Amino acid sequence: xxxxxxxxxxxxxxxxxxxxxxxxxxxxxxxxxxxxxxxxxxxxxxxxxxxxxxxxxxxxxxxxxxxxxxxxxxxxxxxxxxxxxxxxxxxxxxxxxxxxxxxxxxxxxxxxxxxxxxxxxxxxxxxxxxxxxxxxxxxxxxxxxxxxxxxxxxxxxxxxxxxxxxxxxxxxxxxxxxxxxxxxxxxxxxxxxxxxxxxxxxxxxxxxxxxx
Length: 212
Hints:
Layout: H1 4-7, H2 13-21, H3 39-46, H4 53-68, H5 75-83, H6 87-103, H7 107-121, H8 127-139, E1 155-156, H9 163-172, E2 189-190, H10 194-205, H11 208-211
Antiparallel strand pairs: 1-2
Helix pairs in contact: 2-4, 4-7, 6-8, 7-8
């Protein structure tokens, strides 16, 4: 069965992205049928994995948003990456991506996962970092990610700290608890760890903060 990774190197990709991005979620649900010819989309819909017609339309648009972010990667680069995956590893990546795209409540999450996938294709991150970052995006409240630049440089924890953001970033695993106390205390240095810095770098290099 053709999957999302196949679609990323398919001649159908550009047409799918163009049509998927043009979707409005309040259009006639019959439009879904036009996407069922794409094996990856059609198989999920026929298996009942997507849900209601609204969810089907939203899923198609999220897949289009994801693919839009990596469609300009040279085809040779994408084929080289896919050819280097073992069947087991490829299946893991496919299943995780499908799961996260189905769950994403915001199109912006599909955008970000597309940027992260592009980094993986180019070899700038490994499979584990790719899956870890996608998991973080899945669990995050997208609005909070706009605050990542505030924590690139470590700074002292003060009374003015946005405790909601700090707690969220700590729970996501992109800021570590204070080593000495196991929690945050005033005066402790607070900043992104390597995982958080990777996510920030990807968002910044793709201009996400300006678009958000």
